[in-house]
From TrEMBL:
InterPro entries: DUF2000, Pep_tRNA_hydro_II_dom_sf, UCP033763. It comes from the Bacteria. Pfam families: DUF2000. This is DUF2000 domain-containing protein.
Length: 138
């Protein structure tokens, strides 16, 4: 059984190169999708009757933050009981296996993890409270 949300915001380190930023967003989105009921809408037919696979049915803005802002988002999200959070660190992105990622992460305290992205999901109010007025990633 998964969660249901009104909104999910993805926050990415603004200093990541474009390819790594896209990889971060993809990894976070896949993880959110695994645990979220109803996040993907029904398939849609076009005028020719061709079927198009459903896409996300809730707002999913991608925001940008510098490393300090991202750490603030992470620490606010960790302390909030009304949101679902998926974080992504440079440790995850640079590890060659899930085993390596698990081992390396176990050696770093939460407040010192090198966050490069985070998905924060919940009510619009809860998500907006944590992500503040961060700008869209463009």
């Amino acid at each position: 059984m998964g969660y249901q949300f009104e909104k999910c915001a993805i926050v990415v380190d603004k200093d990541l190169p474009a390819g790594l930023a896209m990889n971060t967003v993809a990894a976070l989105a896949l993880s959110v999708g695994k645990f979220t009921d109803g996040i993907v809408g029904d398939d849609v037919k076009d005028a020719d009757g061709r079927l198009h696979t459903g896409i996300t049915s809730i707002p999913l803005p991608v925001l940008k933050a510098d490393a300090e802002e991202l750490r603030g988002v992470a620490l606010r999200a960790v302390g909030a009981s009304d949101v679902f959070v998926v974080d992504f660190t440079s440790v995850a992105q640079s590890s060659r296996s899930y085993e390596e990622y698990t081992r390396r992460t176990a050696e770093i305290p939460t407040g010192e993890l090198p966050y490069i992205g985070m998905a924060v999901c919940g009510s619009r109010k809860a998500v907006d409270k944590i992500t503040g007025s961060l700008p869209l990633y463009r």
